[in-house]
């Protein structure tokens, strides 16, 4: 059994933020061998939304964040699942929660192998594939629903 958590940046406890940063570091920096500035100043603003799943023991299993870019465009990023929790549909569950009742446009930069996951939620590839930290990515956009903007 997993539990879904949803918090704005200022609502995160120190322990929650630590667990999030630890998981992101374990996967993106260590496992994927990408040295990059993960602590980018965008985790704590009030308009940043964090969603994560924990197991029965409280361990962080999967995470994503939703940012508001200049102009109001919402951006999904840092989608990550702990190695031991992969293959259980946790990233899809987080995506569904992040997009529930959302009508505005969303954008994300998908690792190329994960495009199928995002396509299931209405994201369409745009532009050319590009390398980010040595990993192929593709920008994907989900148009606004019901004529909504941003």
TrEMBL record:
SUPFAM superfamilies: Acyl-CoA N-acyltransferases (Nat)
Protein name per its UniProtKB record: GNAT family N-acetyltransferase
Domain N-acetyltransferase: 7-145
UniProt-listed Pfam families: Acetyltransf_10 (PF13673)
UniProt cross-references to InterPro entries, sorted A to Z: Acyl_CoA_acyltransferase, GNAT_dom
Domain of life: Bacteria
């Amino acid at each position: 059994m997993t539990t879904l958590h949803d918090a704005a940046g200022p609502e995160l406890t120190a322990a929650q933020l630590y667990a999030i940063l630890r998981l992101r570091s374990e996967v993106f920096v260590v496992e994927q061998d990408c040295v990059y500035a993960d602590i980018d100043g965008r985790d704590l603003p009030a308009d940043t939304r964090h969603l994560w799943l924990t197991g029965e023991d409280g361990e962080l299993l999967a995470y994503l964040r939703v940012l508001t870019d200049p102009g109001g465009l919402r951006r999904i990023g840092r989608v990550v699942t702990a190695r031991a929790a992969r293959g259980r549909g946790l990233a899809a569950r987080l995506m569904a929660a992040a997009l529930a009742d959302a009508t505005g446009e969303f954008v994300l930069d998908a690792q190329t192998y994960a495009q199928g996951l995002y396509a299931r939620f209405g994201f369409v590839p745009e532009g050319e594939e590009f390398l980010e930290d040595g990993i192929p990515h593709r920008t994907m956009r989900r148009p606004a629903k019901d004529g909504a903007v941003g």
